[in-house]
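W.,

You were right to be curious about this one. When I first looked at the sequence I had no strong expectations either way, so I just let the prediction run and decided to look at it fresh. Below is the sequence, 114 residues in total, followed by the output.
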Amino acid sequence: MPFISTKTNKPISDAAAKTLKEAYASAIELLPGKTEKWLMLSFEGDTKMAFHGDMDTPMAFLTVSLVGKAPTEAYDALTVRLCAVMGEVLGIAADMVYVKYEEVDHWGWNNINF
């Protein structure tokens, strides 16, 4: 089950959240075996953030969590795609986007653990 959390200091409208959802659904397939079927998302807009000592420039921090591991090349491709999506949908420059990957060994769902 992949999970992508998006935090940004920009507002995220309902329309933007829907566009992000669709873009993430496609992007997650860059990781082997991952699909939208198990993808969970969260969007936090208007978050107080600072980067390079600046609080005014649009920025985002994305966390991608998944059960197991993926190849480095897949993470590289996903980072490129997610940075592009941030630019296209929210107008955030790639150099103002951090993407953090978390490989989870144990993940619970529906009374069981993967």
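Here's what jumped out at me. Strands lie at 3-8, 40-44, 60-67, 97-104, 108-109, 112-113. And, maybe more interesting for your project: Residues 3-108 form a domain with the Macrophage Migration Inhibitory Factor fold (CATH 3.30.429.10).

Coffee later to discuss?

I.
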